[in-house]
User: What shape does this take?
Amino acid sequence: MAKRAKAAMPSASAFSVPRRDGVLIGRMTASPAVTVTPGGQASRISLRAPEKSRAALSRALGLKLPETPKTAAQTDSRAAIWLGPDEWLVIDEPEVDLMAVLSSVKALHSAVDVSHRNQAIMVAGPNVEATLNAGCPLDLSEAAFPVGAATRTVLGKAEIVLWRTDAKTFRVECWRSFADYCFTLLASGARDAAM
Assistant: This one.
């Protein structure tokens, strides 16, 4: 009986999903009070790992995975947002293959490319908190939700990841299928906040 040749394991990038065009291209809402714009394309992974794997994953990513609820860590274009005790959303520039970055890590973890699933929406301006509060029940004052804070929450009926990137700017990460709904809700909130 002939021996079967051992199949080579495909590279992580062999499993990467091709990028899609953003679903909100060309949309924008702007006023002196707030601006709502689609975020650019990004590379994203949903990362799950036990505590003993965090150090190896942090080294590979070049940033320390946050361990505190409602926080994010960032270096240059790469960010890791804490979503749970063993879960993070990692975001980087679209040309970065995050799956390849993590493919050499031997420590136990699960990494799923979700770049195609999410759409970012940027909300910025002096009335940014009021705009978001049109659909998000959180206290978004800087005292309660400071720069760098991030969390999984809701916007109207859609689950989102909300990240305060600076004093008057938030990044909303939503599923592509909810992008139009979220953008329309935020645009309505922006109009109300401008009054």
